[in-house]
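Protein Entry — a single chain follows
Fields — amino acid sequence, C-alpha cells
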Amino acid sequence: MLGGVLRNDLNCLFSQVEEIRKKKALAEQEYRNSMPASSYQQQKLRVCEVCSAYLGIHDNDRRLADHFGGKLHLGFIKIREKLAALLVRIIFTLRVIFNSELQHDFHKTSYSSRTLTSVRRNEEKPDCVRMEAAEAADLAALGA
C-alpha cells in the first residue's frame, strides 16, 4: 500500500516537472522572439579589399557606388599607387648604387671581366637589390 502511494506521488511530481519544463521552453521562446537581433546578425558583411571598410552583401548599387567614389576609398588607392612607385624608385636607385660600387671596385683593383663576373655571383646582395623587373612590376600592380 505504501508503495502504491509513493508511485502515485512520484507520477504526480513527474507530470508537474514536465509541465514546468514546457512552460520554461515557451518562456524561453517568447524571450528570444522579443529580443531584437543584433546588427551583425541582421546583415551579412564583407570587407573592401582596398580600404578594409565593411560593405553589406545586399547593399544596393547606389550605396556601393558611393563607397567606391568616397574619399577614404580613393585615398587608399592613391596611397597604394604612391607606395608602389616609391618602391620601384628605391629598387632602381639601389641597383644604380650597387652597380656603380662594383664598377668603382673593378677600376680600383683592376679585375678582369671574368673575375668581376665571379665576384657578382658570389657576393651577397640585399633582398631589395635582387628583385627583378617583373617583381617591381608586380609591386606596381598591387596599387591598382
Helices lie at 2-34, 39-42, 61-68, 71-109, 113-122, 127-130, 133-142.
